[in-house]
Write a structure and sequence with these properties.
Strand content: under 5%
Shape: globular
Distance between the termini: 49 Å
Largest sheet: none
Number of strands: 0
Order of helices and strands: HHHHHHHHHHH
Radius of gyration: 21 Å
Number of domains: 2
Structural class: mainly alpha
Number of helices: 11
Length: 247
Amino acid sequence: MITNKEKEDIFNNLCYFYTSAKFNRTGLKLHFNRGYNDEEEFKKVLFKENTRIFFRYAVTLKGKEFLNCIKNEFILFCTRCNIDNSSKIDWLDNTYNFIVPINGLSGFINKSDTVNFIKWYDKKVKKLQQKSQSIDVNRNRTKGVITETFENMDKKGWQYAFATEQDYNLFADLLTNFFEYKDYFIPETVIQLKRTCKTKVAKALGEMHAELSENPLNNDTEYFKIVKALNHFKEVSNFDLVKAMQR
């Protein structure tokens, strides 16, 4: 069980949704009085309460502000909660079920705002569903080469660089679809790698490109965009990326 001091530290150090609205500490008294097995359990409760308060704020907005508010809250939810794609879809579904009926019951949300939200919702859910269908490494040569390269990168394999298996699979599938000229989606939220792994990861990405691509590396701007989905390379110039991958 976590202590009250640990609960207080979690509450004070967490960043909540991007708007100016804030948690009411007094209103969370009931949640603080409950027992929790670990920090993650308590954090989930806080985020659930955060979402409830967030919706009360979101319905007061109009036009682009409303949709941007929803988008940013979703990004923060995905960033702060270590969850799988099915949980992200659940969040989107709950949001949909909350927002769409409101338009028919009150004037809180304009019809045009609801239509724009539904378009964004449909696109986002489709992407997540595609990502959930991870490519079988045993049936796909391209995925096999990518997997083997990451495993040979270090004695720890992919765990040397990626914080979670979910992030690793997401990026490996992204690379697979790219090299096979299939549709792919670059995540909006940058994938966080572990510290001090930049050199080995860059070398591995260069080896994959040499093995799997028909295009010269120094002109493959689409590949650079994918590599920049990793936090260590987000601000690196294309020229420097090529140098790093060819070492």
